[in-house]
Design brief:
It contains ten helices and 16 strands. By secondary structure, the chain is an alpha+beta fold. The chain has two domains: about 240 residues, 3-Layer(aba) Sandwich (Beta-lactamase); about 80 residues, Peptidoglycan synthesis regulatory factor (PBP3), Domain 2 (Sandwich). The chain is elongated, with a radius of gyration of 39 Å.
Length: about 425
């Protein structure tokens, strides 16, 4: 009997332990299974990282390079200006692969070249834009690398504006996410990369005019709103994509993926970001972040948009640090309401997530310059006195002289008559 009781108790304990272990396993969150060699998922509003795989591994970006080319074109160029293609279009070492077949001397508006660049991924359009913005290709490549450093993409080095395979032309999944985030925050850029198709104007017949976006997710999922695909034999499949849902925007990057599973992998990353993280407002619009002194008066410095924080479900919110950097170098004597006086950097464990402008909450006028009349008062009084008393003195002296002279004449006449 004791043996049977012990046996049943042992079975009960095994079942209980197994059930508990199964329950614990069920609560484990399954991470996205990404086939690409590098991947990154970032929350656009907060700048926080949600998922990564080999984030700092140097990889070829292929045509996702054109994100930077397009951003510079929008920041530095005039969209309505005409761009004339140069003889570089005939250089098959710089221009090959996907093209719209630009010929030397052909004229296109910059805005149409951008559709060819960002939708059709035309390499000749990339070179044409680079020569227009930078005057020549080396100078434009320098501009690309400088802009990457400004964004914080320190492990990125561009060698050309198109993304065609070239030694030393590399980025990382992390860097590319940073570049894409900055680019997408430009509303003109965002409008381009969410466009599915667009006809452009060409001066010659029988040339491609319908630019079709190569991003398959844009056609499959209405929540997807950009950004750029890429492929070369060396880089394999590359994809940067943006999705906006329920007020949140995520940007994902996958580099060097072997096949078309890159699209389902990206969707898995997006699903993970939306279901396993929540976003809240750390500081609402109008929050006072710091103060500045203007004419010995304290001035509140406020933000004109919220500071967001992204937190993993069932975990404590990360601690964000705010660092204020003034933009003025000398004492302030006057400010206008809404004038930018500083920037606030949002950091998570030393990593820069966001930089927002801090604006003055009200206007303060410069002090009125008062004329110091008191130092001239004695002179003014003296002049007034001299102007009044001196003539009186002179008149009195002359009058006295006249009276004396008159008296003398009277005395002489009186003596003569006697």
């Amino acid at each position: 009997m004791k043996f049977i009781t012990a046996f049943l108790l042992a079975i009960f304990m095994m079942v209980s332990v197994t059930s508990t272990a199964f329950a614990e396993d069920a609560t484990l969150v399954k991470l996205p299974q990404v086939h690409g060699e590098g991947a990154y998922l970032i929350d656009v509003k907060s700048g926080q990282t949600l998922f990564m795989k080999n984030p700092d591994k140097p990889l070829a970006p292929a045509s996702t390079t054109k994100i930077m080319t397009g951003l510079l074109a929008i920041e530095r160029g005039n969209l309505n200006e005409t761009v004339t293609a140069s003889t570089t279009m005939l250089n098959n070492k710089l221009v090959y692969g996907t093209q719209i077949y630009l010929a030397p001397g052909e004229k296109l508006l910059l805005k149409d070249l951008l559709y060819a660049l960002l939708l059709n991924s035309a390499n000749d359009a990339a070179v044409d834009i680079a020569e227009y913005i930078g005057s020549d290709l080396p100078n434009f490549v320098d501009m690309m690398n400088q802009r990457a450093l400004e964004i914080g993409a320190t492990e990125t080095h561009f060698q050309n504006p198109s993304g065609l395979t070239e030694s030393g032309h590399v980025t990382t999944a992390h860097d590319l996410a940073l570049i894409a985030r900055v680019a997408y925050q430009n509303p003109v850029f965002a409008q381009y990369v969410r466009t599915k198709s667009q006809a452009i104007s060409r001066s010659k017949a029988d040339l491609p005019i319908q630019m079709v976006n190569e991003n398959k997710l844009l056609w499959r999922d209405s929540a997807v709103d950009g950004i750029k695909t890429g492929y070369t034999a060396a880089a394999q499949n590359c994809l940067v994509a943006s999705v906006t849902k329920d007020g949140r925007q995520l940007i994902g990057v996958i580099l060097k993926s072997p096949g078309r599973e890159i699209y389902t992998d990206m969707q898995d990353m997006f699903e993970y970001g939306f279901t396993q993280y929540k976003q809240t407002i750390l500081k609402p619009t109008g929050s006072v972040i710091s103060t500045a002194m203007v004419n010995n008066e304290p001035m509140n410095l406020i933000i004109d948009r919220p500071i967001y924080i992204t937190t993993k479900l069932n975990e404590q919110s990360p601690t964000l640090d705010l660092r204020v950097i003034p933009t003025y170098t000398s004492a302030l004597t006057s400010v206008e309401e809404g004038q930018v006086l500083a920037n606030v950097e949002v950091l998570n464990k030393g990593t820069l997530l966001n930089t927002l402008p801090l604006k003055s909450s009200r206007s303060i006028s410069a002090p009125t310059k008062q004329v110091k009349t008191h130092s001239y008062l004695p002179w003014v009084i003296g002049i007034i006195i001299m102007g009044i008393i001196l003539p009186l003195f002179i008149w009195n002296k002359r009058y006295s002289d006249f009276q004396r002279c008159k008296q003398r004449r009277f005395t002489r006449r009186r003596e003569s008559s006697n």
